[in-house]
Amino acid sequence: IEAGLRSFNKEMPEEINRILTDSISDLLLTTSEDADENLKAEGIPAEKIRFVGNVMIDSLLEHLKVAATSNIRETVGVVEGNYAVCTLHRPSNVDDETTFTGIIDSLIEISERLPIIFPVHPRTRAKIEEFDLAARIARSKIRLIEPLGYIDFMRLYSGARLVLTDSGGLQEETTVLGIPCLTLRENTERPVTIELGTNVLVGTDPAKILSAANDALVKEVSSETRVPPLWDGKAAGRICDVLSEPPAVAGG
Question: Is 63 one of the annotated active-site residues of the chain?
Answer without folding.
Answer: no
